[in-house]
Amino acid sequence: MYYIIDNKIIGPDYYKMDIKAVDIAQKANPGQFIQIKVNSKNTYDPLLRRPFSLFDVDKDNGIIKIIYRIVGRGTKIMSEIEIDNNIDILGPLGNGFNINLTNKDIILIGGGMGIVPLFYLYKSMQKNNNIKVLIGAKDFEEIEYFTKIFSDLKYATESNNKGYRGTVLDLLLDYGYDFDYFYACGPNNMLKSLQEISNKNKLNGEISLEKRMGCGTGVCLSCVSKTINGNRRVCKDGPIFSIGEVIFDE
Amino acid sequence: MNDLDLSTKLGPLSLKNPLLTASGTFGYGHELDQFISPDIFGAITLKGITIKPTQGNPSPRIVETASGIINSIGLENPGIDKFLTEKIEDLSDINTVIIANISGHTVDDFAYLAEKISKVDIISAIEINVSCPNIAGGGMIFGTDSELIYQVSKKAKNNYQGPVIIKLSPNVTDIVEMAMAAKEAGSDIVSLINTLLGMAIDAEKMKVVLGNTFGGLSGPAIKPVALRMVYQVASKVDIPIIAMGGVMNGKDAIEFLLAGADAVAIGTANLIDPKSGEMILNEIKDYMNRKDFKNIDDIKGKAIK
Fold it and tell me: Which residue among A50, A86, A91, B116 is least packed, with the fewest CB closer than 10 Å?
């Protein structure tokens, strides 16, 4: 059993949870996710686990960290769990980002909660590459926490007058497309626009997809996404896909 | 304490224990290998197969409800030909009874699939899905018309030498009539129950949630309905029953055996905790020890008045 060592608010409805989970920490790669059972034992409501991408992993101390936003009753329950309580987790699940690049100019692009999986990626690749981080959200409050933890960061907000005014893709256009590779995560419409930009400007990169999941282990086929290679399961074949692979039609 | 005998008869099938996987929750046998071995189950039922490759329904395909989930996967599968060439060989190292599950749009579809699978030695039985709520122009329609159940059963039985299992729909007025039709046509076993037709609406967005509008409700929410139907059929029809519907723990499984089931399948539980099967078997053993049952047959039907 794993246990919670920290669970605190870091922004408007945003929480960070640190969990002692030695074997998961050992195995985890950037871009992978975990499935958390949010209810206490012996109750079946809420029934499904909730998927969370790994925000950070401390392999030395066997700690995994997630950042989540309260969006429904599952995350509401999670926000109320006190430290030292046990927590039931499956993971790490899915395939991580390709982290084998070296000496490249790399851009990380994060929209809203999509910023979360980019931090562990950033930490893992920072030494051997030149990385710039571009993030965006509607309001500054949503990303304030993230603006403090990345170096080499630019951010955009749509409604506030802090940072670049616009979306993270406006910020990308402003930055220019002269880099070797990108990693992106964010809402589907952002990734769809990024795919168009990528096609037009011959960019190379990969994205982390989000889709409503059931099991998270590849059996229920709830989270399939259309790709040029047919239906692929976001939980098991993804969540990382190359930018050209996904067909955004929904 | 070690003289417990979990082995049991499911009609013509001999099982090492009464716990099965429900179709569509255990892939094609190996998807959950990192969590659980298929060999621990009395039998595994594979993901449903149709004649042609099926893409499934638009997203979202799943929504959580009170103690349940509604799915509208839409039988996404590679089709019978790819199943026979690609999936079958992976089954050879599985050391338990394997049941294939088939779906069709016409009576002849089922007959065709039954015949195709009859040539595969490693598969011990076929389960006929006359009750999927998620495919247009077929599926559940068969399961709500006793005459069609009779025809499908009869044709499948003609084309398949091994045991034929009919998976019935709960979306009917009289489940006993459906089970009776399956038996009269020569079916060996019935599976009870498939999912209950349901839907979800998002009040904030003022829209239906599922891409396919309707879907099948499963999980603990439907257990009382499943239990009632198993009890009714076990009381009235002399046909072996695989019970399913919201089994999450050993106590749930025992309740179905007490209601007259010969075996019990877990579905939604596999999606939430892939190790559920192991836990449930242990809890069944605990119960047997506590109640001084030496074998499964002693439990079957004990609650029927």
Answer: A86
